[in-house]
Design brief:
- The protein is an alpha/beta fold.
- The protein has three domains: 6-130, no CATH class; 168-248, Nucleic acid-binding proteins (OB fold (Dihydrolipoamide Acetyltransferase, E2P)), CATH 2.40.50; 256-464, P-loop containing nucleotide triphosphate hydrolases (Rossmann fold), CATH 3.40.50.300.
- The protein contains 17 helices and 16 strands.
- It has helices at 6-11, 14-23, 34-46, 52-61, 70-100, 108-122, 133-141, 149-166, 201-206, 242-246, 270-278, 297-308, 324-330, 347-366, 383-391, 423-427, 445-464; strands at residues 170-177, 183-186, 197-199, 214-220, 229-231, 236-237, 240-241, 256-257, 286-290, 314-322, 339-342, 370-376, 394-396, 401-408, 417-420, 440-441.
- The strands form two sheets. Strands 8, 9, 10, 11, 12, 13, 14, 15 and 16 form a nine-stranded mixed sheet that branches. A five-stranded mixed β-barrel has the order 1-2-3-5-4.
- Strand 13 and strand 14 (401-408) form a beta hairpin.
- The radius of gyration is 37 Å and the shape is elongated.
- The termini are far apart.
């Protein structure tokens, strides 16, 4: 006959059955319904005669109830449940003293037993379709709810994770950014491989990474459901310690001065020649190519891209709100667009494309490099986004530069150079189609000297007269 009969087990709460099943080492007992759990307990008792003494101790621990008396067993189970509720409400020690009968504090073993029973009681609220016990063990161990062995397990797991991070293999590669702001460290650029390392968007933003940066740092192995290893931290960027770059001044706080280094185009196209000599611009200029529909703004921007591709600068192209045919046409250009959406895209989508491209150029300029961003067009953006994109252009004192050249129906304000195109001249094929009266450069003498500035003023005067 079983030490615990079926009547006693059926009268016991599920938490007590879980405690009994745990003592009997029944695998997966939390996934069993109550009738199935009772059958498993009885089967284990009948098949394990050698453990009669252990089972007798288990009966004593289960509130010292007589298995032959279901009513008393029920009362004992209720008493056990009240004790557990007292422990979970912060009255564990007081209840334990009552259980001792003499008011003496419980010993250390009783504390550990109480902790184990409380954990088992929590399992009652878990869904029946809970994950296997092996998979749930790690999350439960990480919850620092109680002291004793559970707290020690949490500390051990935390220290183990820290050791894994500290002992991660060092990796070096080239950054390739994704549209969502995160990226990958290509260990064999430019080809992708399974050895590439994931870089989070937070790391990209914090370290102001741009596509093409060479980065090194430790990595951790991929966890469950992850395909790639992840970068733990960034140690160096382009051979310089990441800490030095992180301590640098914010780009918006960098001092700026008027452009003084002219960007030479060297083109034989009549429109570009007129732009170079009559509306010059330099590193750090804010330039708008303005004019009505069919004035040739997009074509002029494409010519500028071809001319500037030979400069020792980082050139970026952002297409926002253009014709689908123009997106395909730009794909064959010497510099492919870093972001492109047609005029069918929402205003927010167009804003996003421009902001991402400008942000990459800002990071280059903040590190002392020279970048140029070509935008076609500002017309479909929210006005604050358009002004912010133009305001990012600057010539940093004793540093790099960011030049922004954008097409727009009309100037947005704050430009240092305005290139106005005449639709009538363009439609009739008379080039250069430059409207000198509406065009101009602020402080042109810094770019072309006093004599050059005087020649520009005379040319504009003749065109106006």
């Amino acid at each position: 006959m079983s030490v615990l009969d079926r009547a006693y087990l059926e009268a016991s709460p599920l938490a007590d059955l879980h405690a009994i099943a745990s003592e009997l080492s029944i695998d997966g007992y939390r996934r069993l319904r109550k009738p199935e759990l009772i059958d498993a307990i009885i089967a284990r008792q009948d098949g394990d005669v050698a453990d009669d003494e252990d089972r007798a101790e288990l009966v004593v621990d289960a509130d010292a109830a007589d298995p032959a008396d279901p009513a008393e067993a029920t009362e004992g189970s209720a008493t056990s449940a009240r004790r557990r509720r007292g422990r979970r409400g912060g009255r564990g020690r007081g209840t334990a003293r009552e259980a001792n009968g003499d008011g003496s504090p419980p010993d250390e073993d009783e504390d550990e037993d109480e902790e184990a029973e409380a954990v088992e009681t929590e399992a009652v609220a878990e869904p029946k379709d809970a994950e296997p016990e092996v998979e749930r063990a790690e999350p439960r161990a990480r919850r620092p709810r109680r002291g004793g062995r559970a707290a020690a397990a949490v500390v051990a797991v935390t220290e183990e994770d820290a050791d894994d991070e500290e002992d991660g293999d060092l990796v070096e590669g080239v950054v390739e950014l994704l549209a969502n702001g995160s990226g990958f460290l290509r260990v064999s650029p430019p080809e992708a491989s399974d050895d590439d390392v994931y870089v989070s968007a937070a790391q990209v933003k914090r370290c102001e990474l741009v596509a093409g940066d060479r980065v090194s740092g430790p990595r951790r192995a991929p966890r469950r459901s992850e395909r790639f290893a992840s970068l733990i931290r960034i140690d160096s960027i382009n051979g310089r310690p990441a800490s030095e770059l992180a301590d640098g001044v914010r780009f918006d706080d960098l001092p700026a001065t008027f452009p003084s280094e002219r960007l030479r185009l060297g083109s034989e196209d009549p429109t570009l020649k007129a732009i170079e000599w009559l509306t010059p611009f330099g590193r750090g200029s804010r330039v708008t190519i303005s004019g009505g529909p069919w004035a040739g703004k997009s074509h002029a921007l494409r010519l500028l891209a071809d001319a500037l591709a030979s400069e020792e600068i980082s050139l970026f192209v952002a297409l926002a709100g253009v014709r689908p045919e123009e997106i395909s046409d730009w794909a064959t250009a010497p510099v492919a667009p870093a972001g492109a959406v047609s005029f069918a895209a929402s205003i927010d989508a167009q804003d996003h494309v421009v902001e991402l491209v400008v942000e990459q150029a800002r990071r280059i300029a903040a590190r002392g490099g020279n970048a140029v961003v070509l935008i076609d067009t500002l017309d479909g953006l929210h006005p604050p986004t358009a002004r912010k994109a133009m305001a990012c252009a600057r010539n940093v004192v004793d540093g790099g530069s960011l030049t922004v050249i954008a097409t727009s129906t009309r100037p947005v304000g704050g430009e240092t150079t305005v290139i106005a195109l005449d639709r009538t001249l363009t439609s009739t094929g008379r080039f250069p189609a430059l409207d000198l009266v509406a065009s101009g450069t602020l402080r042109p003498e810094l770019l072309v000297g006093e004599a050059g500035a005087q020649a520009i003023a005379e040319a504009r005067s003749e065109a106006n007269g």
